[in-house]
Specification:
- The structure is a single chain.
- The chain has 279 residues and is an all-alpha fold.
- 57% of the residues lie in helices and 3% in strands.
- Strands 1-2 form a two-stranded antiparallel ribbon.
Length: 279
């Protein structure tokens, strides 16, 4: 065989009758690419992940209700055709996601956890807090999300707020500054959270509160002048006034203008900026 010659051919490039036949399974069909070039193969997940994903799906579909006990580990192992250690690891995954809780004793076992919105907000906020240390999230992403969410929240709050909620918004807008934090940053964020809650829509709070929690840690308050916080306080009073009067369009526009001003403030005074995607 000459250098560079294809195995199983003669020097002229014709099939060599004396060469051993390649197995049919090893020969690509004429005119077709090899299977590896045509298929998008997804790696098989570890067995415990597959079990956890299946159980999570059933919980989210309501097949197993909150407070209901899951089958025992031996029963789950038989049902899924895996070992008990695999089931145990899958249950640990679900417990870490607060989807189930384990109880000890004769009547113990793994039970579907009752939903806790506060815990969900805490978990999302913690995840975002970690994400800001990676190349995936910019400060601008958080500010942009607020600009989409909170003006709509102010509009809904003006449309739906009852007298008790209106009073809560008013108190939040006029909250005195903490002597240990004369910048007024904490009352500022609390006002925005109160407006989210005033919508009566839990999703607004669950989406907005984690963003607030991250921004609390990212602003260098010493780089913000007292006069700037005075302007923030005034904006809050204006927004609260529109909400109390039921002026939904005005409340939405006032919140949007306020957040646009805050973007300028954060761009100047943030400790963290995240990856630069402008180039």
């Amino acid at each position: 065989m000459s250098p560079g010659q294809e195995p199983g051919t003669t020097d002229a490039g014709t099939p060599d009758a004396d060469a051993p036949d390649r197995p049919a399974a090893d020969r690509p069909a004429a005119g077709h690419a090899a299977p590896s070039a045509r298929l998008r193969v997804q790696r098989v997940r570890p067995a415990y992940r597959q079990v956890a994903d299946d159980l999570r799906g059933q919980i989210m579909r309501g097949a197993v209700a909150a407070g209901e006990r899951l089958p025992s580990e031996p029963d789950l192992a038989v049902a899924f055709g895996v070992s008990r250690s695999t089931v145990r690891e899958a249950l640990r995954v679900l417990a870490s996601q607060h989807l189930i809780e384990t109880r000890r004793g004769v009547r113990g076992g793994s039970f579907v956890a009752a939903p806790d919105p506060a815990r969900v907000v805490e978990d999302v906020g913690g995840a975002l807090g970690v994400l800001v240390t990676t190349p995936h999230l910019r400060m601008e992403d958080l500010l942009e999300a607020r600009l989409l969410l909170e003006p709509a929240a102010a509009r809904l709050a003006a449309q739906r707020a009852d007298p008790e909620t209106v009073e809560a918004v008013r108190i939040a807008a006029q909250a005195p500054r903490d002597p240990e934090d004369p910048t007024g940053f904490v009352p500022h964020m609390d006002f925005h959270t109160t407006v989210l809650m005033a919508t009566g829509n839990l999703m607004f709070t669950m989406m907005g509160q984690p963003v607030h929690d991250v921004l609390r840690t990212q602003l260098d308050r010493d780089r913000v002048a007292r006069s700037e916080w005075d302007e923030v306080d005034e904006c809050h009073r204006v927004i609260a006034g529109h909400i109390a009067a039921g002026e939904d369009a005005a409340a939405e526009e006032a919140m949007r203008g306020h957040l646009l001003d805050l973007r300028v403030l954060y761009r100047r005074a943030a400790r963290w900026r995240g990856p630069d995607r402008s180039t």
